[in-house]
Amino acid sequence: MEKIIRIGTRESQLAVWQATTVQQLLLQYGFKSELVYIKSDGDIDLVTPLYALGVQGVFTKTLDAALLGNRIDIAVHSMKDVPTQLAEGIEQAAVLKRASHTDILVYKEMPDFTASMIIATSSTRRKALWLNRYPNTEIDNLRGNVNTRLQKLNDSNWTGAVFAAAGLERIGLRPENSIELDWMLPAPAQGAIMVVCRKGEAFYKDAVSHLNDTNTAICVKAERDFLKVLMGGCSTPISALAVIENNTIRFKGSICSLDGKEKIDVERTVNLGEVNNIGIDAANELLKKGGKQIVESIRNATK
């Protein structure tokens, strides 16, 4: 009997879009599949700030459990939500071609960036980078799927809210009243989709491997290596972006203090043949430039 691949996904519109995209791509290679909907802890609690949830894997651990429990065969994640250390027994099967990596500001009226503002986000990275650039801003917590967050913005007195461009664009919800924050370095692997499977399950890994985009996989590995060295997860203000241009890879990374008052940047460019350790080397350089003190202050603040 022909195998039907069970694809695990969260229930949000964006997560379902991502899983459906994987389903359609698999069908192009002759693999039939079905979606299995799993509710994550991050979807259930929409009030508590992410940093207070012990956020490493808050959107992925329920799918990991379903995968390890053989209720699903593969799981689809926004890659920026995936811990740098995958759960034991689970491995990366593919990284899809990356969409936009940028953050955007969705605003009610075009803000005066020289005046005080109220900006909403649940991301410690976005909060820290915004405060670094606009220190007179009040930051409010904003949780929920993209539909919920857009509605909360509409119902609020906020100046605007920060979103990942890819999340809104994939499901056709990016408003006209939005601008790209090209100065805001993204979260590692932002805009990329990761598919994981159980270790040792050759059929599923081989099926999904057809969807892997090599250049995206190289770039997000460098970004996640950088994150891993700096002890980071979604709850730390660490940013990274790797871009392949011709036969080179250009890497930018930064770490910010939680209050945005300190920021350290690093940038490297190497030939593709020397790419293996670029994220690790960049992280170690950043630590030597003063990043170690910021890392320690973040650890102490989040104990």
Structure, explained:
- By secondary structure, the chain is an alpha/beta fold.
- 33% of the residues lie in helices and 25% in strands.
- It has helices spanning 13-28, 41-44, 61-68, 124-133, 146-154, 165-170, 202-209, 214-229, 278-301, and strands at 4-9, 32-37, 74-78, 90-95, 103-107, 117-120, 137-140, 160-164, 178-180, 193-198, 238-245, 248-256, 263-271.
- The strands form three sheets. A five-stranded mixed beta sheet has the order 2-1-3-10-4, sandwiched between helices. Strands 7-6-8-5-9 form a five-stranded mixed beta sheet, sandwiched between helices.
- Helix 1 links the parallel strand 1 (4-9) and strand 2 (32-37).
- The longest helix is centred in the C-terminal third of the chain and has 24 residues, at 278-301.
- The protein is globular and about 60 Å long.
Please describe the structure with a list of short key phrases separated by commas or semicolons:
alpha/beta, 5-stranded mixed β-sheet, 303 residues, globular, 9 helices, single chain, 13 strands
Spell out the blueprint of helices and strands.
Blueprint: E1 4-9, H1 13-28, E2 32-37, H2 41-44, H3 61-68, E3 74-78, E4 90-95, E5 103-107, E6 117-120, H4 124-133, E7 137-140, H5 146-154, E8 160-164, H6 165-170, E9 178-180, E10 193-198, H7 202-209, H8 214-229, E11 238-245, E12 248-256, E13 263-271, H9 278-301
Parallel strand pairs: 1-2, 1-3, 6-7, 6-8
Antiparallel strand pairs: 3-10, 4-10, 5-8, 5-9, 11-12, 12-13
Helix pairs in contact: 8-9
